[in-house]
Amino acid sequence: MSQSPMIAYHAKNEIRGWNEVCRYPADWEGWHPFDRNMIAELLQKGHDTITIGWNMYQLIRDKATK
């Protein structure tokens, strides 16, 4: 059985810049609908990150698959 990829959510702050807020599997039930849409786009396009405004979603790749 394949494990869902991990997604790290980052938020930008005027003073500190980008900071990781949380990290959960892509299929985590706690993601909001907006988050799920961004994660789906990230996974479909195969990018490492997707950024919209001050929100960034990052696909956490296993070191062996880089």
Describe this structure in words.
The chain is α+β, with helices and mostly antiparallel strands and 66 residues long. The chain has one domain (6-60). 20% of the residues lie in helices and 41% in strands. It has one helix and four strands. It has one helix spanning 33-45, and strands spanning 6-13, 17-25, 49-52, 55-60. Strands 2-1-4-3 form a four-stranded antiparallel sheet, covered by helices on one side. Strand 3 and strand 4 form a beta hairpin. The protein is globular. The model has no long low-confidence stretch (mean pLDDT 91).
Features of this protein?
66 residues; alpha+beta; 4-stranded antiparallel sheet; 1 helix; globular
What is shown here, in short?
With 66 residues, the chain is of the alpha+beta class. It has one helix at 33-45; strands at 6-13, 17-25, 49-52, 55-60. Strand 1 (6-13) and strand 2 (17-25) form a beta hairpin.
Summarize the SSE layout with pairings.
Blueprint: E1 6-13, E2 17-25, H1 33-45, E3 49-52, E4 55-60
Antiparallel strand pairs: 1-2, 1-4, 3-4
The N- to C-terminal Cα distance equals: 21 Å
Q: Structural class from helices and strands?
A: alpha+beta
Low-confidence stretches: none
Q: Report the order of strands and helices.
A: EEHEE
| Rg over alpha carbons | 12 Å
The count of helical stretches stands at 1
Number of domains: 1
What portion of the residues fall into strands of 2 or more residues? 35-45%
